[in-house]
Design goal:
The chain is an all-alpha fold and 257 residues long. The protein has 11 helices and 2 strands. Strand 1 and strand 2 form a beta hairpin. The model has no long low-confidence stretch (mean pLDDT 90).
């Protein structure tokens, strides 16, 4: 149950996290917008015109939801990983740990900041995509719920990465060697039905496949995986990662000298 003072603490952390990335918007909001625009031009207009349709949709229409989701994933993760590690590096996090605030408020505050940045970048990329393709919306609730759940998953992942990181270089290891490969192999640029049967089975082990396809269903009404299973994967990941984050902070892993 949220007590009034806990709500004030949560709001304070959320305000700090939101102001942090808005204050340096040239570094946090502009780069992903430019990167996604290049994806739209190269993969959508140039390469897409040579590919043709996928499941009755133009290649540009097919990849837009995946590109939006890719920007949400990377920015949600990066925001919390960098912010929490900075707080740990500067010893600011110790003030939170000794404050009369439950650990779940700390986790929710940082995750909320990551979700805010992920959703905002997603909106920016969506607006930019309107210059390249007419976006159709099949199910708005699926779009909103999927982007919020996905952003929460990777915000929690970024927090866990920051807890274990010992240097600034450590927070780039997971995005480079784990997150990027999983994203590119997560069905952003192709349909699973185009893969051999063996690789379709292997792809189902990639959680990003479920996030991208659920999000694509919200726009196009088509998904390569079960929507129910996609939500089960998302909610399950949130529960597991939240539990891990709470345990790490409660034990002070990597936080107390």
């Amino acid at each position: 149950m949220f007590k009034p003072r806990y709500l004030i603490a949560l709001q304070s952390i959320l305000n700090k996290e939101t102001n942090r990335f808005l204050r340096i918007w040239v570094q946090t909001l502009v780069p992903p917008a430019i990167t996604m625009t290049l994806y739209f031009v190269i993969f959508g207009n140039l390469i897409g015109s040579q590919i043709g349709q996928i499941h009755g949709f133009s290649y540009m229409e097919f990849i837009v939801p995946g590109l939006i989701m890719m920007s949400v994933i990377t920015n949600s993760y990066a925001n919390v990983a960098s912010s929490f590690f900075s707080a740990k590096f500067q010893r600011n996090v110790e003030e939170l740990l000794v404050a009369p605030v439950p650990n779940y408020i700390i986790v929710l505050g940082f995750v909320g900041g990551g979700v805010a940045r992920g959703v905002l970048v997603g909106l920016i990329v969506t607006v930019l995509s309107l210059f390249f393709v007419d976006i159709r919306i099949h199910h708005l609730w699926v779009i909103v719920s999927t982007v919020l759940l996905t952003s929460a998953v990777f915000s929690l992942g970024g927090l866990i990465n920051a807890v274990y990181a010992k240097t600034f270089d450590d927070i780039s290891i997971v995005p480079t060697f784990v997150l990027t490969p999983l994203t590119y192999l997560g069905g952003v640029f192709y349909s699973l039905s185009l893969l051999p049967e063996l690789w379709q089975g292997v792809s189902t082990l990639n959680p990003i496949v479920y996030m991208v396809n659920a999000f694509r269903y919200g726009f196009l009404g088509h998904s390569d995986v079960s929507l129910t299973l996609a939500y089960a994967v998302l909610i399950g990941l949130i529960v597991v990662l939240f539990g891990i984050a709470m345990r790490l902070i409660r034990r002070g892993t990597g936080l107390r000298s």
